[in-house]
Amino acid sequence: MAELAGTPDVLDGPRARGAFLLRVLMEPPWALEITEESPLTMVAVLSGDSWLRRTDHPPQRLVAGDVLLVRGAARYLLSDEPTTVPDIRIGPGQACSGTDGRDLSDELATGVRAWGNDASGHDTMLVASYPAQAQLGTALAAALPEIALVSGADSPLLPVLVAEAARDALGQEAVLDRILDVVLISVVRDWAAGTPGGVAGLRVVADPAVAEAVRLIRSQPARAWTVDELAVSVGVSRSVLARRFQAVVGMPPIAYLAQWRLSLAADLLRDTDRTLASVSREVGYGSPFSLSTAFKKAYGVSPAAYRSEVSA
Prior knowledge:
By secondary structure, the protein is an alpha+beta fold. The chain has 2 domains: 11-193, Regulatory protein AraC (Jelly Rolls), CATH 2.60.120.280; 207-311, Orthogonal Bundle (Arc Repressor Mutant, subunit A), CATH 1.10.10.60. The protein is built from 13 helices and 13 strands. Strands 10-11-1-12-3-6-13 form a 7-stranded mixed sheet. Strands 5-4-7-2-8-9 form a 6-stranded mixed sheet, with no helix packed on it. The longest helix has 22 residues, at 172-193. Pfam families: Cupin_6, HTH_18. Residues 211-309 form the HTH araC/xylS-type domain.
């Protein structure tokens, strides 16, 4: 895991705020058709087993200890058996309905952050979703595939997250958000370690020149970096840096700079009350308008709308 220790640019991304968490408790037969569109959803199998079903893929059996990472608008089925017909649909915003369109959110609620057809069901899972891409981190989002299965994920804090999800105490959402971030990082590390050839964005420290270029960009985001300036600073030619940066990080240096600036802007909008003009200057945009344009293109909402959403 040494190659991951020096890559906070990717694994330092998750900053959950008001994440969705739910313990799902099911007794066979059951089948869920899922079209939820969160930037990232994590499904941890806690007991029993289930089957992951996707179009053009053979069914995959999931057992206790497995964790499923689903990015964006991927469509999939979870069921007790590979042939069980879905009778429950989970849509955007965790909307839950039967095949007849009936809302099942309250009907199948079984306790604090618990839902399912049987409170003592044989098959149990923990579902957690990040509500905004900016909370996940654009670098991590770019590194993950549409669906990743991590077999036997080794996260010591997962049982703590499950236990805390069943509590309803003062500041509980903040507690869950912080634990979720650590659990997700642990699961992503396990996934990356088991991926042949490694993962773009998670191998930075393996190339000293690229690692130094990343450090310079992160430490001076407002500077108008060019590939030529970065190459001179790290002691390699422009072409060598461009080629190696693309291979290791998964994008060109200037694209990484733009991504890092927007990630910092999201943090500042979320965690401070600074004006948009101040944030723009801090992260290297010439005007609030140019930041707003880039931010909306990357995250789908304006900086003002994003700040309003995460402050709600």
